[in-house]
Design goal:
The protein has nine helices and ten strands. The chain has 296 residues and is of the alpha+beta class. Strands 1, 2, 3, 4, 5 and 6 form a six-stranded mixed beta sheet that branches. A four-stranded antiparallel beta sheet has the order 8-9-7-10. Helix 1 links the parallel strand 3 and strand 4. It starts with a strand and ends in a 12-residue tail after the last strand.
Length: 296
């Protein structure tokens, strides 16, 4: 009997360990370099096949935009493949939106991977990546399934090995839109390009001992953070809060979430200290996307 549904599918978030803007293309897109790391803060999706060709999304938690990335991903795959099948896509959001953690992009990638199976397409990963790139800069990373050194406008991915880490991740109550940051006149757009080997080697100093975390975390920066903090001052408050407790902090993506690299296994999440309106948790890095094996 053909597979009819896939339940409890993870859509993990990511952290940008650094984010450098190295230039801007004539079409306005910014050129970047970053290291993207998958973490275990994840949305959960349930995907059921429909025979009537309709695509419907059901919100099991906070309401999503009417035409979100998960629906757009399903539509793109449906049109490109010519399938007559549709799908019911149920989304339980856990990753906060407007946080720079790629929650919507990860949902889209999980939908592509799931429907590739449910619709019996069996497309290779390279073909899914062709659909992922127009959907958004982060979607190819989640379809790729590996922690990665990222370049270009987000489409150039070089998989990297990453030893397990723990991160304290905190988001203030405020969210932040990406467009306002990238269009801001004060945004630095001329950071000197780094090499893959050099950046990963310096970040990997963190594996030596907890005493080196603050030093290693000082490698690079997030070029978006100064502008983001000017537009959304609570980001700076979260950064100071984490710096005080863990000795380092950095905004991820375009914000507003901030993370700290955490050392000892026994370090507890300071839940009682978290200011009202903030959300956060202690996260672990993932070696690969949980659904990585679903595309060859």
């Amino acid at each position: 009997m053909a597979l009819q549904a896939l339940y409890d599918l993870p859509a993990p978030a990511k952290l940008n360990l650094f984010l450098h803007i190295t230039g801007r293309r004539p079409d306005g897109y910014h050129l970047l370099q970053s290291v993207f790391i998958l973490i275990d803060w994840a949305d959960t999706l349930h995907v059921e096949r429909r025979a009537d060709g309709q695509l419907r999304r059901h919100d099991l938690g906070p309401a999503l935009p009417a035409d979100d990335l998960s629906l757009r991903a399903a539509r793109a795959l449906q049109q490109a493949s010519g399938t007559t099948f549709g799908a019911d896509i149920s989304v339980l959001k856990a990753v906060p939106w407007g946080a720079g953690m790629g929650g919507g992009s990860s949902d889209a990638a999980t939908v592509l991977l799931a429907l590739n199976r449910l619709w019996r397409l069996d497309w290779p990963r390279s073909r899914l990546l062709e659909l992922a790139t127009p959907l958004g800069a982060d979607v190819p990373f989640f379809v790729g399934g590996d922690n990665a050194f990222v370049e270009g406008i987000g489409e150039k991915l070089t998989p990297i090995e990453w030893a397990p880490r723990r991160y304290a991740v905190v988001k203030p109550g405020e969210s932040l839109g990406t467009a306002g940051i990238f269009s801001h006149p004060d945004l630095a757009r001329d950071t000197e390009p780094a090499t893959l080997a050099g950046s990963v080697a310096q970040l990997n100093e963190q594996r030596e001992s907890s005493a080196t975390f603050a030093k290693a975390a000082s490698f690079g920066r997030n070029d978006l953070q100064p502008v983001a903090q000017a537009l959304c001052p609570p980001i700076a408050e979260v950064a100071r809060w984490l710096e005080t407790r863990f000795g380092n902090s950095r905004m991820t993506g375009s914000g507003s979430a901030v993370f700290a690299t955490v050392g000892a296994e026994g370090v507890a999440w300071p839940q009682g200290e978290l200011p009202q309106g903030w959300s956060g948790r202690m996260c672990r890095s993932l070696a690969h996307h949980p659904l990585r094996a679903w595309a060859g």
